[in-house]
Structures are given as structure tokens and as C-alpha cells.
Amino acid sequence: MPQHQEQLYWLSEKDLFFPPANMANEDGILAIGGDLSEQRLLIAYQNGIFPWFNPNDPIIWWSPDPRFVLFPKELKVSKSMRPYFNQQKFQLTVDQHFEEVMRSCQTQRRKRQGGGTWITENMVEGYVKLHQLGFAHSIEVWQEEELVGGLYGIGLGKVFFGESMFSKVSNASKFGFISLVKQLIQLDFQLIDCQQRTQHLTSLGGRSIARKEFLKLLKVNQNEETKTGDWSKYLNLE
């Protein structure tokens, strides 16, 4: 928990409200409580806020400073990844197995965290509803007929808010992520939110920017039209 408790806002389940994201404390925590309804989740992402918490804990809402992002045109593809594309080692689908991708992320996280996972059942329920509404999307990576990797996130305007990814074989999720970014470039997407820095995403071109800059980009993004529904009609991943 953060050191500065006085800065936190406690949210009720009735009021769809968030304080400004720049009021998060030095740990990046903005508020506690509320719910994971699709309406609240959309408001959160539109304003640079996301949920992340342990099972049996109250919902914790974050807006870290700095924010780790990838500008699509800054994508880096290493030489070691090129054979995966040249030889078509994986096949891709989009928005066909959203819940399965999310639960695979949930299982992989559990193994890494000694029995725990931040992808709780109420998070699965909330994001599946967002998927049904056409805002949450998944990329599925296949090896023959087995789902071996994937990722999911939220698409709003020209920004994709990445949530989690998984791999059952080497480089499967990286293959899916690179393929997605290349397609988002074609659709003139301006930003991919990665939330927090990882070595994996840094190797792909991700970098940290000030939260102030991130929030300015999101404000501009609110004027952009959101491509809802099945993204297979927008993305050519063959």
C-alpha cells in the first residue's frame, strides 16, 4: 500500500466518478473501491486510469508517473524475430477467443506469482462484457490448432490500452504483439499504453513518458472515432 494514505479517494459503487488522474500519489495510486462495470472501466481508460489489485483486496485504481508507452512507428523488430514472420511459424486470429486469451493470461500470471493472480474473476467478467460491447479485443496466436500465445486490451479512438499477454511457446506473444502494432500503424493509431515498464516491451521500442504528456495525448484522442466490434474486419493478420 502507498505511504500517503491521505491522497487516496474512496469510490462508491453508485457514483461513476474518478478524481483527476494527476492527483494520484507518488506510488501511482489514485483511488480505491468502486466496481468493474463496463461503464466505469471505459471512463477509467479514457482518463488514463486502470485497475490492478490482488484477489480479496479492494479494487485499486492506478495512474503512474511516468507512464510506459509504445508509439507504434517506433516499434523495433529484432533480427531474431524475422524468421518467425518469413517462415510463418504462427497463425493469427483476432477477437475469436477473447475469454480464452484472458484466462490463459490469468493462468500464466498465477504460475509466476506463486499461486496468485491480479486477473480476478470479476475482472474477467468486466472485460468480457467490454469485449461483447466491442471495446475489448484479443489477438490469438496459433501453432497448428493449438492456442500458444495472445494478448488483450482496450481500443479507444487511436489508442490501444494493452492489458496482458501470454506465451506457451517461445516468442508467441511477441509475434502477436508485433503483428498487431504493424496493423495499428496502418490504421493510424497514435499510441499503445503499456502501463508500466518491462524489459520485454522495452526491447520492442517502448519508453516512458511523463503522465502529463500521456494525459494530453488522451485528451486529443477523445475526439477520435472508436472502431468497435469485431476487429477482424479492420486487421489483416494473415
Provide an overview of this structure.
The chain has helices at 38-46, 82-86, 98-112, 121-132, 172-186, 199-203, 211-221, and strands spanning 9-11, 29-33, 50-51, 60-62, 67-70, 91-94, 136-143, 146-156, 159-167, 191-195, 207-209. Helix content is 30%, strand content 24%. The chain is built from 7 helices and 11 strands. Strands 6-7-8-9-10-5-11 form a 7-stranded mixed β-sheet, sandwiched between helices. It is globular. The relative contact order is 0.17. The chain has 2 domains: 5-65, Alpha-Beta Plaits, CATH 3.30.70.3550; 68-233, Leucyl/phenylalanyl-tRNA-protein transferase, C-terminal domain (Aminopeptidase).
Strand content: 15-25%
* Strand-pairing-aware structural class: alpha+beta
> How confident is the prediction overall: mean pLDDT?
91
What is the CATH-assigned architecture of the largest domain? 3-Layer(aba) Sandwich
The overall number of domains is 2
Q: What is the H/E string?
A: EEHEEEHEHHEEEHEHEH
Distance between the termini: 45 Å
Rounded radius of gyration (Å): 17 Å
Helical residue percent?
25-40%
Fourth-level CATH superfamily of the largest domain:
Leucyl/phenylalanyl-tRNA-protein transferase, C-terminal domain
Net shape: globular
Strand order of the largest sheet: 6-7-8-9-10-5-11
